[in-house]
Amino acid sequence: MNLLFVLLLAALLFAYLAIPLLFPRQSDPLPDLRDPVTQDLEEERDALLRAIRELDARTDLPEARRAALRGRYEAKAAKVLRALDERQREAPPEPPAAPPRGLAAVALTLLAGVLVGATFVTNNLPPEVRSVDGGPPAITGRELQRLERAAARDPSAANLLALADGYWRADNGDAAEALYVRITQEVSPPPAVALQRLGFLRLQVNLAEAVQYLELARNADPEDLETLYILGEVHYASRNMEAAIEAWEAYLEAPGGAGDAEVAARLQLARTFAALLAAAEADPSAENLAALADAHWESGERDRAVDVYFRLLTEADPHHATALSRVGQQLSLGGRFDDAAAVLERALALDPQDHATRLYLGSARFAAGDYAAAADAWEVYARAAAGDERVAELIATARERAAEDALPPTQEELQDLPAELFAEAAGAGAAAAPAAPAASSAVPDDTLAHPTEDAGTPERGAETAPVAPAETTAAPGTTYTTP
Fold it and tell me: Does the keyword Ribosomal protein apply (predicted)?
């Protein structure tokens, strides 16, 4: 508390002295005596030079186009530089800058040092006494030391478990895991909470070991709701639907679990996928594979859906318009714009009335720098989907950039566009995107991607931080994302 007060006071004093120095015209406004024409020319010069530097760094453009753009920008820059030289010869010299305020500058430097030092001290506190996720400390250093001394004096099961839970609350996963393993080896029967938390910790390293620990925890406490829930999620993520169904059914039958709408919904989803998976395995027809992929897509499991759509395109029907469209959409969101456009063009050739496909085709063309083609696609979409305000603005932007012969947008520029069309692409590289099917009528087998192999374990609701030993929760630092 005292440290926070000192930091706040120092920050206020820093601001009090810094503002007059950093923003002198806010306190003593004076007319801007600089030549406005010279300012405009300097800004235009800086913009052109910056564009030339960016162009040299863009390796994604053909050399011929880069050379043409560079010549155009250099010609404009030379013209601006000549005009700037002539203007500077004609214009009167600018007034000298005001001298710095000595005393305030010294005080400003001293206060900046105080702030930097306080920040360094705060950031270098032991992890067990710092707050977790911006909240209060999970456990104080003094309390953890007390637990360590108690376990050293009397290494009983109760003291060891309390210390392991202390490490858990301090987000020290390695120390907690080592002590939980010791407890399971020395205490008979092993406590259910130790087995459960070992399962949570191993989820980040070895899924098979995690399942073994969670099953042991369930055997030790068959009605623990958190263990049953996480077991169901782990089995669901591994596509072991029968085991997931059994775990969630046990959850709903356990005391306190009946009537849990969220678990009931997960159970129904698992039953639906169990039937679809069984049908696709027994008869991998285009109809069965499409039904399975569509279910993944509609439930938000887009990567799993693309995995099945690839299988559909390679094994059953290479001309399936919906599969091509949705694969293209994911490729576009993943940053594979040229591949996405090729696949989306194929989908539109098969189903010209699929306007969602045309919307994403415009996104892929825009992100690839083909602004005229992007505007054309979006205009067709806009006529079919009247009232979509996003598209009118996108069309105007595309037409403007096409007229300027602008470079393809950077990732930072994509972040300013509608998130549902560009958000993932703004932060994704090619390696993060699924492999692209070929633009020919058939999709080769080696384009299959298997995103399910790296699927995480879903979390129930918001992220859960480690809490007191009496409660059960997820492992420190582990995030479970519902598919």
Answer: no
C-beta separation of 195 from 183 below 8 A: no
The 10 Å Cβ neighbour count of residue 67 is 12
Phi-psi region of 297 (alpha: psi -120 to 50; beta: other; left: phi over 0): alpha
Distance CA 372, CA 402 (A): 6
- 399: which 2 tokens? 């037409």
CA distances from 462 to 252, 277, 369, 474, 480 (A): 21, 29, 38, 11, 9
Token output for 256: 């306190």
Contact by Cβ (8 Å): 306, 449: yes
Mean pLDDT over 38-51 rounds to 76
**Contacts for 98 with CB less than 8 Å, ≥ 6 apart:** 24
Helix, strand, coil shares of the chain, percent, nearest 5, are 70, 0, 30
Distance from C-alpha of 254 to C-alpha of 367, rounded to nearest angstrom: 52
Backbone angles phi, psi at 28, to 5 degrees: -125, 80
Q: What is the DSSP letter of 316?
A: T
The whole-angstrom separation of Cα 328 and Cα 309 is 11
* Amino acid at residue number 287: E
Q: Is the dihedral of CA 124, 127, 132, 137 positive or negative?
A: negative
Alpha-carbon dihedral sign for residues 417, 420, 425, 427: positive
Mean pLDDT across 299-323:
92
In 10 A of CB 157, how many CB atoms? 14
Q: Which pLDDT band, with edges at 50, 70 and 90, does 216 fall under?
A: very high
Q: Which of 338-370 are b and which e, b meaning 16 or more Cβ less than 10 Å from the residue's Cβ?
A: bbbbbbbbbbbeeeeebbebbbbbbbbbbbbbb
State the Cα–Cα distance between residues 128 and 145, nearest whole angstrom: 10
Beta-carbon contacts of residue 427 (< 8 Å; ≥ 6 apart): 411, 415
Residue predicted with more confidence, 419 or 201: 201
Q: Residue 409: CB partners within 8 Å, gap ≥ 6?
A: 366, 367, 369, 417
The answer to whether residues 182 and 155 touch, using CB atoms and an 8 Å cutoff, is no
